[in-house]
What does this fold into?
Amino acid sequence: MGFREKIARFMSGRYGSDALNTFILIVCIILLTVAMFFTGVPSYVLRGAALLLLAVSIYRTMSRKVEKRRAENAVYLRIFYAVKSFFIRQFNRIRYIKKYRYRKCPGCKNHLRLPYKKGGHEVKCPKCGTTFSVKL
It folds into this structure.
């Protein structure tokens, strides 16, 4: 039996790596890099935090509680995509400022991209059907 088969047998039934583990390892590397620029107590604190995160990552990888790890990863992905969509929306607001304006529907709080028109006019939300006036 080769080394690869031994590793596969050892890891069977264990959770493995996911997006949250990758994020934890990236934060760990950042903390270790920042710790190189400090001396004394701040360096020890940053290295200790990095070591703790590394231990959490290893624990998550070796865990046999697959459903709990999947639930943790789902919560992380929900937060990650919410933050990502916020920054993409802000980037697009700046990118298309000459063509569009972004407003929030008062009924369903959905973000609407409206074509730029001078003066006020009525807008109907495609999601909930609420009609409201906007001044662009």
User: Anything to note?
Assistant: The mean pLDDT is 92. Helices lie at 3-11, 19-35, 41-62, 66-95. Residues 21 and 42 are 25 Å apart (CA to CA).
